[in-house]
Design goal:
Two copies of one chain form a homodimer. By secondary structure, chain A is of the alpha/beta class. In chain A, about 30% of the residues lie in helices and about 25% in strands. The model of chain A is unreliable at about 5-10 (pLDDT under 50). Chains A and B meet through α4, β6, β7, α5 and α7 of A and α4, β6, β7, α5 and α7 of B.
C-alpha cells in the first residue's frame, strides 16, 4: 500500500498548483486517498493543503460545517477538491455546497454524463454529453413574496454577465475537450426577454468559436430529444432551473450516477467533487468505488491546464473498466472479470497509466491549455427612459370593470390606466368573462401623448392609491433602453 | 363508406351533449370525419355544431384565425373537439391554441403518455402515465421587465386557486380512470413559497382521496426517475413550466407522439385535440393515422361522463392495434399484419367495438361518472400586515459597502436598511468579496423596534430616493399573513 502514502506530501516543484483538499465523511477519506494517489502517480503537479469540513465540524456547533480558517484556505488556494460530506439530521445546519457556490461566485456547474456500456447498464449506450448549468441566478435567487391572500411570487432574474460567463465557459470547455458542438436550451418563445437574453448571448458568443458547431432548442422539445436520443447532443448549456432538472435526467439515464464527477467554476475559485454522497454504511471497508471523485479530480486537472495528466488518468480509468476490474457497485457476472476493493481498483488504474482503452473511445486533449475565462467586463450603459409603471394591487373583487372604475383616477394628469391583467392575461379593456381572476391585479399606467413620466409620477400614483384605499402591493417600472421598450405586453393585448 | 355519412347529423336524442367541432386544415377533415364516425358508431350521445378555424380564416385577414361567431359557438357549447390547424407563415398571426387556453381559462392540460409496445418502438415498454399540467400561471403569465442594463426579470406567479383546481383535477381524473396513484413534482426545497404552496395544496387535497396513493418528488430527481423508469409513475401533476417540459419528455419516450391526444380543461369550457400537427403533405390521401384525434375524442367522452362509450372505443382501438391493422406511420414488417388507410383503420376500429384487447391491458371505467370539478370558492382572507419593503435599485457601482452608505438615510425615522442582496445573495452586511455583483440591488427596509411600517412609509422612502438621486426600479412589499412572515430571507442571511 506504499503507493498511497505520498498523497498528502506537500510537493514543492515548480509549476505546482496549490489546492485545498477536504476528505469529508463516510467513504470520503478512502476515495480521496486513492484519488490523490492516482493523479499523483500520473504526475499531477499539485501541492495540497488539507482542511476539515462536514459532520464533525457541524456537530462541534458550527452550523455552516466549515471553520473560518478553512474558508481562508479555500479562498487563498482557489482550487478545491472536495469529498462527500454528511450533513447531520436536524434543523439549523446550512448546506455547505449551497453556501460555497453562492459566496465564491461559482457560476458554472459542469456535469459530464457518459454511458459506460456494456459495463454499466443503460438504455442509452451511445451517450456522451456534458451539461453546463448556470449556477447563480434564475429562479434560484430565492426571492419570494406573498402579497395577496391567493398569489405568491418568485422572481426569475437573468443577467447579461451571468449569461456571458456561462456561455463562454461552455464554448471554452468544448474547445479544450475537443468537443464538436454546443447546444443551448431555453424557452424563449414564451420568456422572450429573460430566456431571450440567454439565447441572444449564446448566439453572440458562438460567433467567436466558428470551429464549434452551435444550435438552440426550445427546452421542451430539446429535453424530450435528450431523454430519448441523448447521442444527438454533445455539450448543452442552460439557465439554472433547466440545468438542474436536465443534468439529473442526463446523469440518471447514463446509468452511471455513482461514477460521475462534477465541477463548480467561478471567476476566481473552483470546486470539484463526486456527484454521489458520503455513504456512511460503506465507510472504512475498502469497498467504495472512487470513480466519481476521480472524475472530479480529472476535471480539476483539466481546469488548471494539466491536460496531459488528465488525459493519462482518464484513459487508464477507462481501460481499467473495460479490463473488467470492478468494485462491488458495478460488478456483474459476464461483463466483470475481477471484483476488487477501493485500493485494488486504484492500483489497477495506476498500473494502466500510459495505456489507452480499446473498447471505449480514448480521450485526447493533452497539450490543450487551460480554459481562457476572462473576468466579465461591464458593457457601456444604454440610454434608459422611464416609460410607465405597472402597479400591482390586492383586490378581492371579481369583475375587472369595477376595478377599472377605481384605478384611472390614480393616474393623475398626463398619465392614464392602459390595461389591467390578472396572472398576465388582459382582463380590461375588453376581457372575457370566462377568464378566471385571482385577487392579484396588475394595472399598467403610461403617459398620455407627449407627456414624460417621472419617478415623481410613480410616487404620486402611490399617494393617490393610499388616499383612495387601493392596496398597492408592488411596483414594476417600465423602461425603454435606447428607445426600445423593455417590458412585455399583456397576454391578449 | 356509408358509415361515415352520419357523422355530422345533429342528433336530437335526450341526454345529448352539444359539442363544437372544427375540422381544421391538412389531414384534419379526414381524421375528424372518421373520429366522429367511430364514436358515433359506439353510441356517443352528442350533437354537433361545426365551425371553421385555421388557415382559411387567417388568410381572409382575421389574425386570430377564428371568427367572433365561432367564438360564440364554442362559449355556448363549452365542449370543443378540434382537429389540427395550419398557422400561415409570416408575422402577425396569433396562436389559436394560446388564445383559446388563456381566454377560456383552460387551467388543466392533460396528456396521457402510453407505450404501445411492441407495435410502436420504445425503450420504455411498460410506460402508462398521464401528465396533468397547470396551464394558466407560473412563469407563463409572461410578465417580463428589464429595469437595469444587466438584469431582466420574469415573474413566476403561483396562486392558491390555480393549485387547488389543477390538483383536484388530477385526483378526480385518477378516480374516474381507476388509476392508483397521483404524484406531485415541485422544487419546493428551493422555491419554498411558490412551489411550497403547490405542494401544500397537493397534500391538502390528497387527503380527500384516501383510496388513491399520493407522493411528492423534487422535480429534478422525479424527472430523472420518470425519464429512466416511467413505469414507476401513474398520474403526475405539476406547475406549468415543469409540465410543459416533462409532458414533452414523457410523450417522446413512449415513441407514440403521433398517436397521442390531449385535453385542455377549464371551469366552464374544455378543448380536446391530437398532439400532432396538420401534416399538409399527407392531406387528402386517406393515409393519416386518426389515433391522436380519436384519443382526444375519448378524453372528451370521459370528461362529459360518457365513460361507457369511451371505454368501448378505447378497447376497440387497442384491439385494432394489436390485430396488426396499422396505418403507414406505424406499419412495420413482423409486427404489422395489414397496411391500411385512414378510413379502413376506422372501419376496423368500428368492427372491433364491443371487443377487448388481449395483449394490451383493457381499460375499464364504464359506469364511472363525470369528474366532479366544483367552481373554486374563495377562502376567507387572512390578517395581512405590512412588515417592510424591498426597494430594488439600479446602481452601477461594484462595492456593496458604498451602496450601504447611500441607502440607509432613505429609511427615515422608524425604519432601517437591514440587508442588501444581489441576485438574491446577501452582500451587505458581511458580504464576501468573491460574490459577483450585477447592477441590480435589492435593499430591504424593516421597521425598528415596535414601529409600524405603513404604505406611507414606502412612499416616503421613494421620495427620499428621488431627492438623493437613487434610481429605484421596483418595490416589493413585505407582508405577514396572520402574523407569519410571507417573504423569503436573503441567501446567506
Amino acid at each position: 500500500m506504499s503507493i498511497f502514502n505520498f498523497a498528502l506530501l506537500n510537493c514543492k516543484h515548480k509549476n505546482m498548483t496549490r489546492i485545498t483538499v477536504a476528505k469529508g465523511d463516510g467513504i470520503g477519506p478512502e476515495i480521496m486517498d486513492v484519488t490523490l494517489a492516482i493523479i499523483q502517480a500520473a504526475g499531477a503537479r499539485i501541492a495540497i493543503d488539507e482542511i476539515e469540513i462536514g459532520e464533525k465540524v457541524y456537530l462541534s456547533g458550527n452550523t455552516s460545517g466549515i471553520a473560518p480558517e478553512s474558508w481562508e484556505t479555500i479562498r487563498k488556494n482557489k482550487i478545491f477538491l472536495k469529498a462527500p460530506i454528511t450533513t447531520p439530521q436536524g434543523g439549523g445546519y446550512k448546506s455547505l455546497n449551497v453556501t460555497t457556490r453562492k459566496f465564491l461566485g461559482l457560476y458554472a456547474n459542469v456535469r459530464p454524463c457518459v454511458s459506460l456500456h456494456p459495463f454499466v447498464s443503460t438504455k442509452h449506450p451511445e451517450m456522451d454529453i456534458v451539461i453546463v448549468r448556470e449556477n447563480e441566478e434564475d429562479l434560484y435567487a430565492g426571492i419570494e413574496h406573498q402579497q395577496t391572500d391567493e398569489v405568491v411570487q418568485c422572481l426569475k432574474l437573468i443577467s447579461r454577465p451571468g449569461c456571458e460567463k456561462i456561455v463562454r465557459y461552455a464554448f471554452e470547455y468544448a474547445k479544450q475537450q475537443n468537443r464538436r458542438k454546443v447546444t443551448c436550451f431555453t424557452k424563449d418563445n414564451i420568456m422572450k426577454q429573460t430566456d431571450g437574453l440567454f439565447h441572444q448571448v449564446f448566439d453572440e458568443i458562438a460567433k467567436e468559436y466558428p470551429e464549434i458547431e452551435n444550435e438552440h432548442w426550445i427546452i421542451d422539445i430539446g429535453a424530450a430529444k435528450m431523454a430519448d436520443t441523448p447521442e444527438a447532443f454533445d455539450v448543452i448549456v442552460m439557465p439554472n432551473l433547466y440545468g438542474d432538472v436536465l443534468s439529473d435526467v442526463a446523469a440518471q439515464i447514463t446509468g452511471s450516477v455513482g461514477l460521475a464527477g462534477s465541477a463548480n467554476i467561478g471567476e476566481t475559485c473552483a470546486m470539484f467533487e463526486a456527484i454521489h454522497g458520503s455513504a456512511p454504511r460503506r465507510a472504512g471497508q475498502n469497498v467504495a468505488n472512487p470513480s466519481g471523485l476521480l472524475q472530479g479530480a480529472i476535471m480539476m486537472l483539466n481546469h488548471i491546464g494539466q491536460t496531459d495528466v488528465a488525459e493519462n488518468v482518464q484513459n487508464a480509468w477507462l481501460k481499467t473498466l473495460e479490463d473488467g476490474i470492478h468494485t462491488y457497485d458495478i460488478y456483474k457476472e459476464g461483463t466483470s472479470k475481477q471484483r476488487v476493493g477501493t485500493r485494488e481498483f486504484a492500483e489497477a488504474v495506476i498500473a494502466n497509466l500510459g495505456q489507452k482503452p480499446a473498447i471505449f473511445k480514448a480521450v485526447s486533449y493533452a497539450g490543450n491549455t487551460a480554459l481562457n475565462l476572462p473576468k466579465y467586463v461591464r458593457k457601456p450603459s444604454a440610454q434608459k427612459t422611464l416609460a410607465g409603471v405597472d402597479v400591482f394591487v390586492h383586490w378581492s373583487g371579481t369583475n375587472p370593470d369595477e376595478l377599472a372604475e377605481k384605478i384611472p383616477p390614480l393616474a393623475g394628469d398626463g398619465n392614464a390606466l392602459t390595461m389591467i391583467t390578472n396572472r398576465g392575461i388582459k382582463v380590461w379593456p375588453e376581457g372575457f368573462q370566462e377568464t378566471f381572476c385571482t385577487d392579484h391585479w396588475r394595472c399598467r399606467f403610461k403617459p398620455v401623448g407627449s407627456n414624460q413620466v417621472t419617478p415623481a409620477s410613480v410616487v404620486e400614483i402611490l399617494q393617490r392609491a393610499i388616499a383612495s384605499g387601493v392596496d398597492v402591493i408592488k411596483t414594476e417600472n417600465l423602461y425603454e433602453f435606447d428607445g426600445k421598450a423593455a417590458y412585455s405586453l399583456g397576454q391578449g393585448q
